[in-house]
Design a protein that fits this description.
single chain, alpha+beta, OB fold (Dihydrolipoamide Acetyltransferase, E2P), 6 strands, DUF3127 domain-containing protein, DUF3127
Length: 138
């Protein structure tokens, strides 16, 4: 699965030692650039990947990730782990944001004008134009 968004938070790096050796992990939060933005937190696991991706707050990135769930004491917890992160150029990010806004009909006044049919006169307005001065609507 993939998602594109802007990095809005970089949480502190976590590290430890397991039976296989030392490990590092870091959590990031991105926000999509849609009409109704959504946020997603994901983890990058491994010192080599942390150095390779080099993610900073404010960058627009494309994240490829896997979703998994694990059970702990009868409850399930989701885990979203990134396996690839690519930085999106600013120009491509602006084009993607503009195209998603246009697809939703936002920020396009010509689209909004065509959403409604032309206004028709009511029976009362037509009667007033003909010179009929009674107040009855029928």
């Amino acid at each position: 699965m993939e998602i594109q968004g802007k990095v809005i938070a970089v949480l502190p790096e976590r590290s430890g030692v397991s039976a296989r050796g030392e490990w590092k992990s870091q959590t990031y939060v991105i926000e999509t650039q849609e009409q109704y933005p959504k946020k997603m937190a994901f983890d990058v696991f491994g010192a080599d990947r942390l150095a390779q991706f080099n993610i900073h707050s404010g960058e627009v990135i494309n994240v490829s990730f896997d979703i998994d769930a694990h059970e702990y004491q009868g409850r399930y917890f989701n885990q979203i782990r990134a396996w690839n992160v690519t930085k999106v150029s600013q120009q491509a990010a602006q084009q993607a944001m503009a195209s998603s806004a246009n697809a939703a009909g936002v920020a396009n006044p010509t689209n909004q004008q065509n959403l409604f049919p032309p206004e028709q006169q009511s029976a009362q307005q037509q009667a007033q134009q003909r010179g009929n001065s009674d107040d009855l609507p029928f």
